[in-house]
Amino acid sequence: MDEELEFFNEIAQKLLISEQKNPVVKPVPTHQVIDELDINFKDQGIKDDEWKELIEKMINFTPKTASKLFFNQLFGGRQPKAVFGDLLAVMLNNSMYTYKVAGPQAGIEKTIMKKVVQLAGYPDLADGTIAPGGSMCNFMALVMARDSVVKDTPNAGVNSKMTMYTSKESHYSIPKNAAFAGIGRDQVRFIKTNEKGEMDTNHLNDTILEDKNQGYTPFFVNATAGTTVLGAFDDIEAIHHVCKKHNLWLHIDGAYCGGVIFSKKYKSLVNGIELSDSFSFNAHKMLGTPLSCSIIIAKDKSYLSKSFSNDADYLYQTNTDDFDLGKTSLQCGRRNDALKFWTLWKSIGNNGLEKLVNQQFYLADIAREYIKNHPDYTLYSFENSISICFNYKDIPANEICTLLYEEAQAMVGYGKFESTEFVRLITINANNSETDILHFFKVFEEGAKKLELKHSISVNTA
Ligand SMILES: *Cc1c(COP(=O)(O)O)cnc(C)c1O
Q1: Between the CA of residue 424 and those of 173, 381, 427, what are the distances in Å?
Q2: How many CA atoms lie within 13 A of 295 on its CB side?
Q3: 257 C-alpha to center of ligand 1: Å?
Q4: DSSP code per residue over 254-276
């Protein structure tokens, strides 16, 4: 192992230097990547020197998500103490299902849950777990809701037409999970939103009533804290009012921006969170841990075990129920995603986590201000969102984003709200500063100039 660790150190150092010099890598076309990087296998292995060379080459061509010009997704940057925790988790290689195998690691996960439960304002009866991603947290919430409404579902299966509700702007995992859970995509109702992308609760109520009249069984509402495109926050209190009236499970998908619970300044964006039945967030988004660290809590922990426990005599052999985390989790063997969050949290404290969140909103304000002050831009996003959606002159968003990517200038994506497509800049990398955001706009405008030039050449030669 010594040699591999030494090599790891060496290439990690090189990576840190190279992502500063070349923050964006030139993409290898998909039809070339397997051959170009010698990815395929042979009967014979290769010599260590060759193996090392190959790995360095592969790293060079891999997108640099921690760089200062990566704004493409809802994660980015690198928190050193969290990275350390994840590396350590791999070295320790525990599985989180039993205390016997996880030891203090189970205590770490339980402590994180306890703290998150408090931040959400849930009672002591609440508990949570870590799932492999925010999509799977949403899946767990859906299954708990299903089993809480029709109690015999885990044994008998789904026997009635159960309907569920989510906004048009919510994440695609919701209909996908409906298919997984035996509910069926046809039973998902996509509720209208207002101009900010927030769920229209009147439409929600009317749709539920209509379904009831048709003989369906409404059971689940998904509210979003930070929609994928605009970063909008649904009005939890208003949605809860409707859920309570019709006795539906309320889940909050906070995968993107649920991390605001760590900030005194921005926590009000999820006002009413304590009224929900379940809540999830991705620490690998706003809190900067490496992928993935997705936490789901349920207000009444008995629903977690009702839906996710199963007898397994070969596994549960000690009397440590409360620390045998396999009894409330989706998986059997489960990697330790808690440690990286803990190593970070311990190091920077509650205040440090709050600073990470606040910094992202600060950077978003910088970006919005810049756009507002430059008349060539059109802004589509609102205050209190770290998704900054805009267009520049009349340049199509997909064209400029693709050019910046292909010419290795910046990684930024585009999105759509109603019929408008725009560039979507995500300020989730808390390591960035005002200078980095302003630098992005400079790079962006240079790219736009190139594109305009290309267009005028093609117009002139046509
Ligand atoms: C990212 C995201 C998800 C999915 O989380 P994964 O960890 O990628 O599975 C779900 N909902 C919202 C709103 C998201 O932004």
Answers
A1: 20, 9, 10
A2: 31
A3: 10
A4: ETTTGGGGG-TTTGGGGTTGGGS
- Per-residue pLDDT of 65-79, as tens digits, reads 999 999 999 999 999
310 — pLDDT class (breaks 50, 70, 90): confident
Residue 461 structure tokens: 């030669």
Task: Answer for the pair 108, 338: CB distance below 8 angstroms, yes or no.
Answer: yes
Kindly report the number of other CB atoms within 10 A of residue 1's CB atom. 7
Give the SS3 label for residue 356. Answer: helix
Q: What is the pLDDT of residues 197-245, one digit of tens each?
A: 999 999 999 999 999 999 999 999 999 999 999 999 999 999 999 999 9
Write the Ramachandran bin of 360: left for phi over 0, alpha for psi from -120 to 50, otherwise beta.
alpha
Residue 170 alpha carbon, nearest atom of ligand 1:
13
pLDDT by residue (tens digit) across 324-370?
899 999 999 999 999 999 999 999 999 999 999 999 999 999 999 99
Q: Ligand 1, from 282, 285, 296: best to mutate by most atoms within 8 Å of Cβ?
A: 282
Residue 284 and residue 75 in contact, taking contact as beta carbons nearer than 8 Å: yes
Integer-rounded Cα Rg, in Å, for the chain is: 24
Ligand 1 midpoint to CA 300 (Å):
23
Phi-psi category of residue 436: left, alpha or beta, with phi > 0 → left and psi -120 to 50 → alpha:
alpha
